[in-house]
Amino acid sequence: MREVDIINLLKDYAAKYGKTPTAAAFCKEYNLFASAIIRRYNCTWNSLIEKAGLKPNKATKRSKEQLLLWLKTHPNCKYNQIDFGIRGALEELFGSISNAREAAGLAIIDWRGLSKTKKAYSAFFSRLFARAFAAAAPTPAPANPAAAYFVPVAIFGCFLANLVTVVPTFFAASFN
Question: What is the pTM of this model?
Answer without folding.
Answer: 0.39
